[in-house]
């Protein structure tokens, strides 16, 4: 299969916003450093800036977020163009078309609120800027199933699905890529990666900090919309999916989509929502807010491989530590030979952040005459020196037309189907103290089990 053509211009709307400052400019400088930025970069925003002011803003952003590489920044600055104007004004898109003169395959990045997507997409089409173009949209891909369907319809009116790149930076993270590789790059895992050997799976995304000035955003999102529906269901899909049939991007996305479709829709009795004490005093937060900053849920897959194996997902702010980790517990041996064997199972442990660690929990005999064992961990630790940042990876892939790490329309809709019944006020809200593991009610989801503690030492179980 022939490789898709490379984009010959990059346009990003919202060029004066926070996302551009924190993520896009650092990614563009990194691409320039590696010699991968060989196309004009057109920023579009309402700010009435000159090109020189835009270049200065890019430099200021880099100084605050990672530092300025003088050689790479010189390349980036020479590539920059700027178009100012209101997104609702057709003249803005006329000026953009003029700035793109000579570009036949532009890539448009919408670093703007979703409420403006329809306006910008329509403006691009009316000005002829959507022809043979690609478009990148940021998560969230809707607020629920109905709005996701509406968003997909809006994009589909002007762009074919093959030209739509739904960016979730989490999929571009090196540890998430490592999880996919570990699953299908090792022969020893497949024989036991099923309901016959796995008893349960736990996925935890813990943050020890609060909303950090993003109270207004969080009031519109909450933990389920912010990280569960996208990041953590993506991790669950990587753990549960079948091996792709083939090597290309669509075969991988087919396999992930099948995993999403196998997820049984969650019902209120399988969710516990919490809110950390003090959240209602944050800037931008309703003093009577019932938005969750913590969510724990039980997920089931209606598939031959995973039938009867519960997947437990937990995410929250102001918890005891900051870490994202997966633990896969195996069933106990079928016959007990040694009387000291406890209920502690063998397990696989995947630390995804703040660093990458893969571990296998096992039992080994203690030194001495008695046949007495102890729990040990076999650990592989990865330290990355020149790790590619998610936005650099994803921008480069979008410019190449590689959709492997981007969400597809049917997968997005299937993921919303999983959580649609438990959004909003469908379950009680429990207040929890900061620095804890959330409301104690979350323990009831595990049916007598206990949540794994990501703070546990990797040297010992």
Notes on the structure:
There is one protein chain. This protein is α/β, with parallel strands linked by helices and 461 residues long. Helices cover 31% and strands 21% of the residues. It has 12 helices and 15 strands. The protein has helices spanning 18-33, 51-64, 70-79, 90-99, 117-126, 145-156, 174-184, 215-220, 222-240, 249-262, 390-400, 409-419, and strands at 9-13, 41-45, 80-84, 106-110, 134-138, 164-167, 198-206, 271-276, 294-299, 311-316, 323-330, 347-353, 356-365, 373-382, 429-432. It has a 9-stranded mixed sheet with strand order 14-13-12-11-7-10-9-8-15, with helices on one face. Strands 3-2-1-4-5-6 form a 6-stranded parallel sheet, with helices on both faces. Strand 1, helix 1 (18-33) and strand 2 form a beta-alpha-beta unit. Helix 1 packs across helix 3 and helix 9 (222-240) crosses helix 10 (249-262). The longest helix is centred in the middle third of the chain and has 19 residues, at 222-240. The chain is globular, with a radius of gyration of 24 Å. The two termini are 47 Å apart. The relative contact order is 0.14.
Walk me through the topology.
Elements: E1 9-13, H1 18-33, E2 41-45, H2 51-64, H3 70-79, E3 80-84, H4 90-99, E4 106-110, H5 117-126, E5 134-138, H6 145-156, E6 164-167, H7 174-184, E7 198-206, H8 215-220, H9 222-240, H10 249-262, E8 271-276, E9 294-299, E10 311-316, E11 323-330, E12 347-353, E13 356-365, E14 373-382, H11 390-400, H12 409-419, E15 429-432
Parallel strand pairs: 1-2, 1-4, 2-3, 4-5, 5-6, 7-10, 8-15
Antiparallel strand pairs: 7-11, 8-9, 9-10, 11-12, 12-13, 13-14
């Amino acid at each position: 299969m022939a490789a898709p053509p490379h984009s010959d211009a990059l346009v990003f709307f919202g060029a004066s916003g926070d996302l551009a400052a924190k993520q896009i400019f650092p990614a563009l400088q990194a691409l320039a450093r590696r010699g991968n930025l060989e196309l004009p970069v057109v920023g579009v925003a309402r700010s009435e800036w000159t090109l020189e002011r835009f270049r200065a803003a890019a430099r200021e952003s880099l100084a605050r977020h990672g530092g300025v590489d003088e050689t790479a920044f010189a390349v980036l600055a020479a590539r920059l163009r700027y178009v100012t104007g209101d997104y609702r004004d057709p003249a803005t898109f006329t000026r953009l078309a003029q700035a793109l003169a000579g570009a036949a395959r532009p890539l448009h990045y919408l670093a703007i609120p979703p409420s403006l997507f329809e306006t910008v997409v329509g403006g691009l089409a009316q000005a002829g800027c959507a022809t043979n173009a690609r478009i990148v949209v940021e998560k969230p891909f809707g607020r629920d199933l109905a709005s996701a369907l509406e968003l997909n319809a809006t994009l589909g009116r002007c762009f074919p699905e093959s030209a739509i790149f739904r960016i979730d930076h989490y999929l571009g993270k090196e540890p998430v890529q490592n999880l996919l590789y570990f699953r299908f790059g090792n022969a020893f895992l497949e024989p036991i990666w099923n309901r016959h050997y796995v008893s349960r799976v736990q996925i935890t995304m813990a943050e020890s900090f609060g909303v950090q000035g993003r109270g207004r955003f969080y009031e519109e999102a909450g933990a389920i919309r912010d990280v569960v529906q996208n990041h953590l269901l993506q991790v669950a899909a990587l753990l549960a999916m079948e091996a792709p049939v083939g090597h290309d991007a669509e075969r991988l996305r087919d396999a992930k989509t099948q995993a999403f479709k196998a997820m049984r829709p969650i019902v209120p009795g399988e969710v516990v929502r919490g809110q950390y004490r003090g959240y209602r005093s944050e800037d931008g937060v309703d003093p009577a807010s019932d938005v969750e900053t913590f969510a724990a849920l039980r997920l089931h897959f209606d598939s031959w491989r995973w039938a009867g194996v519960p997947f437990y997902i937990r995410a929250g702010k102001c918890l005891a530590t900051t870490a994202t980790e997966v633990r896969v517990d195996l069933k106990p041996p079928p016959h007990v030979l040694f009387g000291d064997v406890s209920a502690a199972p063998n397990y696989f442990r995947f630390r995804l952040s703040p660093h990458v660690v893969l571990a296998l929990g096992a039992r080994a005999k203690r030194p001495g005459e008695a046949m007495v064992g102890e729990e040990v961990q076999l650990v592989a630790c990865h330290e990355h020196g020149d790790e590619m940042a998610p936005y650099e990876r994803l921008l480069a892939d979008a410019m190449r037309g590689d959709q492997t790490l981007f969400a597809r329309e049917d997968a997005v809709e299937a993921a919303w189907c999983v959580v649609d019944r438990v959004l909003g006020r469908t379950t009680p809200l429990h207040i929890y103290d900061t620095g804890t593991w959330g409301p104690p009610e979350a323990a009831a989801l595990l049916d007598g089990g206990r949540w794994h503690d990501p703070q546990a030492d990797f040297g010992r179980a």
